[in-house]
Amino acid sequence: SDEDEDGDSIHMWTEVKYGGPDVLNLPENKDRTLFLCYPDDYEESEESMALQCLKTFNGDHVVHVGELCGAQATLSLRQCPWGRTSDPGFQEHLMTNFHCILQIGIPHWPHTKDHLTVWKRSKVCIIPSSTDSGDEDDSDEGGCEDAWAAVPADEQLPVDLAAPCTLHLL
What we know:
The protein is of the alpha+beta class.
């Protein structure tokens, strides 16, 4: 139990370890969840720490706190559509290799749209193309197979969303 600046006791319900890409491949971190909270402030580096971590991370779950492209889009026109908290390359890598299984609105400043999201690594399903000739040395030009994320139905977020002024249309 730690204390805040007023000397009051703070109880933590879990331990969050500080680190970066370099600690993600340590054996003790093999089965951990990657937690990224406003990861890209670019104060220490011009590179995206979030992208470096995600490319290094071998686990199955990522928790992200901040703004993301899409339903969590920023209100900042200058930073639209990616938001203020994580690099576009990170977001593309996240959304290509993981699928969102939980999205929760959290308290935020009036000019931001921060969310807590939980992502699960997507399994890949290879689907042979109808143009598959069976040759093993088909070039990439013709394409003999295509990769798709295999997301179980119980891990898919609802598709239908509506602002309060359009709820009657659902």
